[in-house]
Q: What sequence folds into this?
């Protein structure tokens, strides 16, 4: 039984190993055609027990039939010798044949470590082979077996089809080294794979209904693609061998990072689309099922990923996401960081891990929902639910006030108590994040927005301010949030252009501001950024807007009932406290009086309250100005304040 963390790391190792074994399959399929052009007459040739080693992968075909070829049987047999005098790309470039077929083709891949992978393809057919290119290549299906010590995983493929397959380019990329800077060599015009199912030793099953790709190609890399894939598989396997290890030794880490950078930089993909993906397993929390209806990738200026129909189910916990999109995706920062980590003396820290993130132009989410099971009730009533009032000396023991449901007990006319909800439902209509250019792995500008975030008000019971909303009659919250900020490296300023929180039938709070003293050293210093900013950052401006659309009236109604006052009486008390108490608390400056007056007007007629504060000097106010101020008046002496109620 393997460690769960080890199994998680083993999965990508199996995937990389499978890719390493699968890439040359097309090469092997048409290799018997490599020297057909030399013969003078078109003929059909059958070969038996063909075996070809290719790196750590060996291909075996019990029988191959080459139809419409000008090569003799002896010539084809000679071309298939593992130690042939010419490299495979040169041989395959001379291919001319009507078709090549094989009932069975077996691929056996060894490594990393004790891992062994066997793929058995059925009914392989290559049609219209000209100058090393196959117009159409198909297989009826395949069976996959992966063993690693005592653990075995099995899987199957449905029909596979590829068009305009360049065998010479495929073998060149797979077997011949390059510097990773050459021209892109296209491998397939299109490829389709259907009905993939794989189950690992732990019982986890992955399914793929259909995979389609167009314009797939790449560049030659050091060690060839075979060597790079083997290095990645070996590195991931080394991590899975020690589930508690957080990092590889420097030499192994360097090889893994270098191979990853080579392949990421070499791959060239036009489009990819996967449909009907799923992952299922059973653990202590019950059966788990993750499904994705559609997953796509497209290259170009607006390169990105899109996912549709994501669903997660485990017991009573359910999550749904209609659509997710990543646009403007670039792996350039990731590749650059991997190349640095490929040096044995490179240091790995939080900064390097942050720089591994790819650049993303934007992210959008639409129609997300989450259903959480209700927490089980305790076996015995808690003190909070069934309070006991201690008796005072000389007084009879007090009895707790009966609750509403207790008072209604036995009353046939009383409304039955509402049953607790079976699940807690949270929904989000849409969300979007856009990012500016990266600096040391951090976006220099970010805008985040979400709308239609609906949740039970009780979920915010422990949150400041929001925790009191159920007492004001709010059962569900419908929230909208926007945050927009940007960093100007030249001015050493962070601008909070907008931060807005809006609640339906409640109101809106909007903030904007400007903070100086934020330079690039914040991203690279060894000192934590929060500590560094305490000494360098300074507040230059802050604008606050509060708009009421119903919350204040509910607050007054609830508080007046609690205090046994009329709403108008309580409102007048708040007006007096605002106009006279606030200026005293804030130091009695002109700015403090302006705030108090505006607050009093807002309480009288709650509409919109606007407060603008700006430092009197360009240097702004630093941490020390606030921390060591003897009173609020000392701070107000350094700022200009304007406040008004609308």
A:
């Amino acid at each position: 039984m393997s460690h769960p963390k080890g199994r998680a790391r083993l999965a990508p190792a199996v995937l990389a190993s499978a890719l390493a074994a699968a890439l040359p399959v097309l090469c092997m399929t048409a290799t018997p055609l490599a020297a057909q052009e030399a013969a003078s007459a078109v003929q059909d040739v059958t070969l038996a027990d063909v075996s070809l080693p290719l790196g750590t992968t060996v291909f075996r075909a019990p029988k191959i039939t080459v139809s419409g070829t000008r090569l003799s049987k002896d010539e084809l047999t000679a071309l298939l010798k593992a130690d042939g005098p010419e490299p495979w790309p040169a041989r395959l470039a001379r291919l001319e044949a009507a078709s090549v077929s094989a009932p069975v083709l077996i691929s056996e891949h060894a490594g990393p470590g004790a891992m062994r992978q066997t793929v058995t393809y059925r009914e392989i057919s290559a049609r219209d082979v000209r100058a090393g290119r196959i117009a159409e290549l198909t297989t009826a299906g395949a069976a996959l077996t992966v063993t690693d010590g005592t653990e075995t995983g099995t899987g199957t493929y449905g029909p596979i089809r590829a068009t305009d397959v360049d065998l010479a380019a495929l073998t060149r990329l797979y077997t011949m080294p390059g510097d990773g800077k050459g021209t892109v060599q296209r491998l397939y015009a299109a490829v389709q794979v259907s009905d993939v199912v794989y189950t690992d030793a732990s019982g986890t099953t992955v399914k793929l209904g259909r995979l389609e790709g167009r314009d797939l190609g790449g560049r030659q890399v050091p060690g060839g693609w075979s060597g790079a894939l083997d290095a990645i598989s070996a590195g991931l396997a080394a991590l899975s061998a020690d589930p508690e290890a957080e990092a590889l030794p420097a030499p192994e880490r360097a090889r893994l990072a270098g191979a990853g950078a080579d392949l990421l930089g070499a791959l060239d993909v036009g489009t990819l689309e996967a449909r009907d993906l799923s992952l299922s397993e059973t653990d202590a929390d019950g059966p788990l099922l993750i499904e994705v209806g559609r997953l796509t990738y497209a290259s170009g200026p607006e390169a990105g990923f899109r996912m549709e129909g994501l669903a997660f189910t485990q017991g009573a916990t359910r999550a749904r996401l209609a659509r997710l999109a990543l646009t403007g995706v670039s792996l350039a920062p990731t590749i650059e960081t991997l190349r640095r980590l490929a040096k044995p003396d490179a240091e790995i820290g939080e900064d390097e891990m942050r720089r591994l993130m790819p650049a993303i132009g934007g992210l959008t989410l639409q129609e997300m929902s989450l259903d959480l099971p209700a927490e089980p009730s305790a076996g015995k009533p808690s003190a909070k639910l069934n309070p006991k009032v201690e008796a005072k000396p000389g007084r009879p023991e007090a009895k707790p006030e009966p609750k509403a449901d207790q008072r209604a007990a036995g009353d046939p006319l009383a409304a039955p108590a509402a049953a607790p909800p079976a699940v807690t439902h949270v929904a989000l209509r849409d969300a979007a994040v856009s990012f500016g250019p990266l600096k040391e792995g951090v976006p220099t500008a970010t805008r985040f927005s979400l709308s239609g975030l609906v949740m039970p008000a009780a979920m915010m019971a422990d949150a400041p301010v929001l925790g009191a909303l159920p007492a004001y009659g709010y059962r569900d919250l419908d929230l909208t949030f926007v945050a927009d900020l940007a960093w100007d490296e030249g001015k050493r300023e962070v601008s909070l252009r907008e931060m807005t929180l809006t609640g339906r039938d409640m109101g809106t709070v909007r903030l904007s501001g400007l903070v100086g003293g934020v330079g690039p050293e914040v991203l690279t210093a060894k000192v934590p950024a929060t500590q560094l900013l305490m000494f360098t950052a300074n507040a230059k401006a802050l604008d606050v807007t509060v708009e009421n659309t119903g919350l204040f009236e509910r607050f007054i109604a609830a508080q007046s009932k609690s205090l046994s006052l009329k709403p108008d009486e309580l409102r007048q008390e708040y007006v007096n406290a605002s106009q006279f108490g606030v200026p005293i608390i804030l130091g009695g400056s002109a700015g403090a009086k302006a705030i108090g007056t505006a607050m009093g007007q807002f309480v009288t007629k709650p509409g919109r309250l606007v407060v603008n504060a700006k430092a009197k000097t360009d240097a702004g106010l630093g941490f020390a100005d606030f921390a060591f101020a003897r009173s609020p008046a000392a701070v107000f002496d350094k700022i200009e304040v304007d406040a008004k109620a609308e």
Observations:
- Residues 4-167+216-247 form one domain.
- The longest strand covers residues 267-283.
- The longest helix spans residues 4-22.
- The radius of gyration is 34 Å.
